[in-house]
Design brief:
This protein is mainly β. The protein has three helices and 14 strands.
């Protein structure tokens, strides 16, 4: 095995991943694509897996999230435009290299939970993930913007080679305010929609209004990792022999 510097992804991959990426992006891989998130830096107490799969270019991507954190709550959860570079020893600096939200369609920050679910960054995903009283984040959802397989002409891009960031605070969904004493709506478990709680209070500070339209004011970055190709699970052997 050898390593190759991929300038178009701004990172170094070993030969196995280069081979997988070549199949996907150069040979027109349009079916049964899989990826995982490999953590580059994370806060103590954060661990787990994020798996992404997509059946074909006409299907949404499926996200399966299983992360553990050290306290319950609602955490911002996005795909960012650059891969994370650096090491685990400097969380803030490494996660800063991820840049802003992945936004190939040039949209404002929004949410699939808002009245217009397509007015959002592709990287906004479901905005937040819920950690229960034990700190377990378990959610499965589909996304037709944050895709692995390009679908030209409009969605001629892939989240492969981008980064995923878990934030310290709650994404306000780009609504320009927060729910006092509560939380915005979110998706939990297997596509279960949870209603908002509390009274909506609009921001008065201009910086918070601007932040809402750009990032959802999701706060600092507590973990970041890169979206890399995963091996496609082997198909079961259904052959049989007749005696």
């Amino acid at each position: 095995m050898f390593k190759i510097k991929l300038d178009w992804l701004h990172q170094e991959w070993d030969s196995n991943r280069v081979f997988l990426a070549a199949i996907i992006l150069l040979c027109g891989g349009k079916e049964n694509m899989h990826a995982i998130v490999e953590w580059t830096a994370k806060k103590d107490g954060v661990d787990g897996t994020v798996r992404i799969s997509q059946r074909d270019q006409h299907s949404p991507a499926l996200y399966e999230v299983s992360i553990d954190v050290d306290s319950p709550g609602l955490y911002g959860f996005h795909i960012h435009q650059n891969p994370a570079t650096g090491g685990p020893e400097d969380l803030e600096q490494t996660c800063a290299t991820c840049g802003g939200h992945f936004n190939p369609l040039g949209k404002k920050h929004g949410s699939v939970l808002n009245s217009n679910p397509n007015e959002r960054h592709a990287g906004d995903l479901i905005n937040n993930v819920w950690a229960d009283e034990n700190g377990h984040i378990r959610v499965t959802f589909e996304d037709d913007l944050a895709i692995l397989i390009p679908s030209p002409p409009e969605k001629d891009y892939s989240v492969l080679g981008k980064s995923l960031v878990l934030h310290q605070d709650t994404d306000d969904l780009g609504r320009g305010g927060r729910y006092h004493g509560g939380h915005p709506p979110y998706i939990h478990g297997k596509k279960e929609w949870c209603a908002h709680r509390g009274d909506f209070v609009r921001y008065r500070r201009p910086d918070l209004l601007e932040g809402s339209a750009q990032t959802g004011n999701a706060g600092s970055r507590m973990a970041c990792g890169n979206i890399v190709p995963a091996r496609v699970p082997a198909a079961p052997d259904l052959s049989c022999s007749l005696q």
